[in-house]
Specification:
Structural class: mainly alpha
Number of strands: 0
Largest sheet: none
Radius of gyration: 23 Å
Strand content: under 5%
Length: 323
């Protein structure tokens, strides 16, 4: 039997590639944006910065609502999300992600609705609601922020739990990248929406998020050997390089232009764009690795050869070891 070529596995693909489309890549971004925005809102709430709090809460609700739309679109029927709540399986990232969204979504929604307290009448039933909403919103905002780290990172665990080569081997880095991207996108919201005097927490979030994101992407582009190629070549490589430049530019603008509203807004826009490109670059890099049999066959052969060497076995399986 001739050895299989890398273009096919005797006429058949080795892996069934991901059936996910661009909407799941968008879901990765909106989930991270929601998480980062809730952390931003909690920072604004605890430090007395109402502009940051308001921007973070409203953006978090909009982002998690968009996430629900993308997820239901991928599932095909909304009832499938409900069916996931029948069980809680700690070993399943998808099951845990369903419960994370279930806990996060209502908390983010209540926190955002509480921002309407200021426009309600002072008297009557609506006045009573207006007085009750702020403390309820504060508690809900802290609950959403407490759930946000899990929301930001579980999608990285979900991708790494698949058989897609460049996702699976990047299991230590993907949660780090997604956490950094979430922080950077939340910081971008703060830089866009808040005046410079209130944007201090957003600038600190930008630095922390950029550090995590740049470290993680550097690792997946250099640590995985052959499986790093999909993150460096083609469309995914271009996206990740552009994301790196935008991240660096956004952080530089946030730190150097801290007194200028226009510079801060441009920096926030750059960070948001970088987060989008990072998520799409990671997504399409994994898809590319699943399509090319070389990324499945070569690492398998390297692992088999390493085990042979460790056990002092001959490299030719046809010849049994000498007795």
């Amino acid at each position: 039997m001739p050895e299989a070529e890398f273009t096919s596995y005797y006429g058949r693909p080795i892996l069934k590639g991901p059936v996910w489309k661009w909407d799941i890549a968008a879901y990765l971004f909106t989930g991270g944006l929601a998480a980062g925005s809730s952390l931003l809102a909690a920072g604004g709430q605890l430090t007395g910065r109402p502009a940051l709090r308001r921007a973070g809460r409203v953006t978090a609700l909009a982002a998690v609502s968009a996430s629900a739309v993308f997820l239901v679109k991928d599932l095909g029927r909304p009832a499938r999300f409900h069916h996931m709540l029948r069980v809680a399986k700690p070993t399943s990232p998808m099951s845990m992600g369903t419960w994370i969204l279930t806990a996060y979504g209502p908390a983010a929604g209540v926190a955002a609705i509480a921002e309407a307290a200021g426009v309600l009448p002072r008297r009557g039933l609506l006045g009573l609601a207006g007085r009750a909403l702020p403390p309820i919103g504060h508690a809900a905002g802290l609950l959403a922020a407490g759930t946000a780290p899990a929301l930001a990172t579980y999608t990285g665990v979900l991708l790494a739990d698949t058989a897609v080569p460049s996702w699976h081997e990047a299991y230590p880095e993907l949660p780090v990248i997604f956490a950094g991207s979430a922080l950077a996108s939340g910081a971008g919201v703060g830089l866009l929406a808040a005046p410079p005097a209130q944007a201090g927490p957003a600038r600190r979030m930008a630095v922390a998020g950029a550090a995590l994101e740049l470290y993680g992407t550097h690792r997946v582009e250099s640590r995985l050997g052959l499986l790093s190629e999909p993150y460096r070549l083609g469309r995914p490589g271009g996206m990740l390089r552009a994301a790196r430049l935008l991240t660096l530019g956004g952080v530089a603008g946030a730190l150097l232009g801290r007194r200028h509203r226009v510079v801060g807004a441009l920096s926030g826009t750059a960070l948001l764009a970088a987060s989008v490109l990072t998520r799409f670059g990671i997504f399409y890099g994994g898809v590319a690795s699943a399509r090319d049999p070389r990324y499945t066959v070569v690492p398998q052969r390297e692992r088999v050869e390493a085990r042979r060497t460790a056990m002092d076995l001959p490299s030719d399986w046809a010849e049994p070891p000498a007795v």
